[in-house]
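<derive_structure_tokens>
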Amino acid sequence: MIFSILISCGTSRKLTRNKKILDNSQKENFHSEEKMSNPTKILSNKEKIQLYITQYSSIAKDEMRVHKIPASITLAQGILESGMGYGRLAKEGNNHFGIKCHDEWKGKRIYHDDDKKGECFRLYKNAASSYRDHSLFLKNRVRYSHLFKIKSSNYKGWAEGLKNAGYATDPNYAEKLISLIERFELTRFDSKMAKSNAEKYSVSKQMNNFIHIVKKGDTLYSISKQYGVTLDNLVRVNQIKDQVIFLNQELKIPIKNY
């Protein structure tokens, strides 16, 4: 299931203190203003995917350097398996690749309905741990060993190989991976010049589009968790003093610092 980030577009402006939004007007005035607010805006799937790529591409590149798995393949799998980062396993269990417990898993667990009800999935302390375990999962299993004979530049070969090895039951799994890689130019993270190529992809322009409008109930902490950024970065980029924010205030989301 894919979840959406809702961004309030109301027009009233309220002062917030102590990390909580304070309403200095009478309740009846606030409710009347709420009725006049504009409809909520939802991030498009394209924006969600761009956000995911910006957050996790550096981890995928690190895994490629260590384990020789194309970063493009890792990112495409992460996008697909995690529901662009909005699926329950990713949000609550930091599990971005749908890896189940299996007999050898000794870590924490999260239970989720998949092919069967209440199946056991691996729970990680952070996304980087999920990415590392994904690399080891592929590298340490015989059925995936043939993949490492395929050139890292051959993303189509990797996609087909994953499908043929039974990574997913979806018969269109390879086609979906290839489509994501080509639509979002994920091969730019595979080459030795990945860093310079990625910088040319106007990441900063993408990030300028990610503005959060403060809504009732928001706190700086909840906003930082929602977008996966640090509280310190959020405060610094927006030059916030005393952790005070306002209702309907526009906050820049410093994803490019991740």
The mean pLDDT is 80.
